[in-house]
Amino acid sequence: PASQVGQWGANPIDLNVPRALPPASVTWPADHSWFIASEIDAEWMCVSGSTALVEALLAEFGSNAEPATHGAIPPLEATEQ
Q1: What is the per-residue pLDDT across 19-53, written as a single tens digit (0 to 9) for each?
Q2: Opening angle at CA 25, ends 24 and 27, nearest 5
């Protein structure tokens, strides 16, 4: 599940000291139910999934999220062109 992002294969630093890994630039679970892609230096990420997932993200993040379509240019890149 997405709640485990950063935990896959991360060995503890020391006894009782958990270790988190940086998020991967591409995260896609085995069941392919959702997908996250991000650039290392960008201030945005793309999340793909069911209509219910997209609606939940838009509701949770309000003006900090917007729907997009495949091939759309992310807002920050569009202003740099």
Answers
A1: 666 666 787 888 888 888 877 776 777 888 888 98
A2: 65
